[in-house]
Amino acid sequence: MIELEESGIYEFEEFRLDAKRRRLFRSGSGELVPLTPKAAEVLIYLVVNAGRVLSKDELLEKVWENSFVEESNLSQTIFVLRKTLGEDTRNPRFILTVPNRGYQFIAPVREPGSGDEILEEAIIAEETPPPAAPAAVRKSPLRRPAGLLAVPLAALVVFAVYWFYPRSKPAGIGGIRTIAILPFEDLSAEQNDKYLGISLADALAEKFGVMKELTVRPTRSVLKYAESRDDPAAIGRALEADAVIDGRIQRAGERIRVNVQLIRTADNATLWTGSFDDRFTNFFDVQDAISQKVVQTLALRMNDRERERFNRRGTENAEAYQDYLRGRFHWNKRTLDGLQKAIASFEDAVRKDPNFAAAHAGLADCYVLLPEYSGATTHEAFPKARAAIGKALELDDQQGGFYATLGYAQAFYDWDFAGAERSFKRAVELGPHDATARQWYAEFLGSTGRFDESYAQFALAVESDPVSPIILTDLATNYYLQERYDETIDRTRKIIELNPNFGYAYYWLALSYERQGRDAEAVETFCKTSLLFGEPPAMVEQTREAFRKNGLRGWWQKRIEQIEGLAPYPAYLKALAHARVGDREKALVYLAQSVEQRERFVVALRLVKDFDLLKNDPRYQELVRRIGA
Q1: Which among 88, 84, 108 has a CA at the least distance from the CA of 97?
Q2: pTM, 2 dp
Q3: Could you read off the pLDDT of 465-496 as tens digits, one per residue?
Q4: Please, are residues 571 and 597 in contact by the beta-carbon 8 Å criterion?
Q5: Residue where one domain finishes, among candidates 259, 286, 304
Q6: Is 174 exposed, middle or buried (0-12, 13-18, 19+ CB in 10 A)?
């Protein structure tokens, strides 16, 4: 086996791996091949140990050290690596699966033989300088061939390091590739604008989100820490972030003051602090100043497209922008009241600036979620979502999140699966670290039975947002669809441990208990689900009593009595309840209603086992055919 150092540069086939910077290039063109941090670490460990069979336990221990993860995380990462490398699993060139043992990197690995080649790679890696780099750095004399011939290799390498990494740069900052932006603490005397601290964090996250070199934890996962200010670094570690942005915001009349610090989570070191005092109407300038300082401090590089997106403002209308921030604040609550207030705020923003693309997209994001939180039908909500996202894309066709919303509507309302796939692919191309885009793409793939691809997208979603209960629950749904009930139970239990009030996790846990014949546990978990979704305790107790008297069938019959009178109530769930008691006709009636209403989960109808008693009925088969998934 070739002895390799983990900080070196290695070549195999058409690739060159820079282990120190965790980057993969195509050798001929120097093109950077995108890799998630974990995929890069797995690849490096495989290459460093080329020729040796590595057990799954060893890989998990080395790459996910001190983290609780499952074997499926490794399998999904290997899947992503193979796809990235263009691997044919039937005739592997790089990664061989050794049954019952682990994985082996089988391609010949070599260290580059030419010093010029090593230096050339370093230059490619640093081609775009930090925004605030001194003028002297803009064009390196190292790129002149004559200079390369005259200077010894060792001196060149030392000089290159000195040139690209100024002495004033704190050690280790270059390794920060994941950040979390905590909601800014609002110190305003009146605190009439409670949205302001969260919205500033969300706006910064959106701004940094254009950069492929940086992963930003989504606001929705950071919100749970809005009231906890004691140890920002500990919060960052809980979010698996390399650094956190923590700040205070204070508004007094028409003035605004922001104090902010950038903290490395590994050692609690403060990498940068800053204070900004300006007119409230200059909120844009405050955001720009903070983001530029963070980019400079972390020595982050952007290509031309990323820099243009980073510097762009969606609107110059300060009032419209405040309405937009207020809308995102309410949207992140994920409640009916929050969505209704968000719609009002986004509509205000659009009225003040009809060309504000992000405000139109905000409206679309509200409407695609509205049927899940209200009595609105998909036929009421989704045409509005389509119109809004269409306008957003007409104004700005370079935002990955816009394509994700379009893809969601195409997949789960239009049933335009080819169109949805194109939109999702464009979404993740433009926003590779967008956890929601990855999540929705994964949901679409799982709902259409493409589970391997779905798990790969879920792995990337979890990489960007490792603590999101909805992403982790949607991942567990895949296991349920594949009848892997032990894994569904295991995953949903873990979600509940960290999120004891997250109803959707209880729902899939209950269904899995039921499929395993664990009736008492299923009923108690169903009851917990009902309580979390706001049903009256007395109503829930009636179902418990029905179970005590007549078992699981009695519980479902009581449930049917209760939900028949509830409007609105998803037709899909009514069909499920009737199927549980063997009422084929009513199950078909409600299933037909669900298909007609284009309810979200009906896309996966051909995969679910909950309607097995209907599988041979031509009417059921016609419903599946209509969906076309």
Answers
A1: 88
A2: 0.72
A3: 998 999 999 999 999 999 999 999 999 999 99
A4: yes
A5: 304
A6: middle
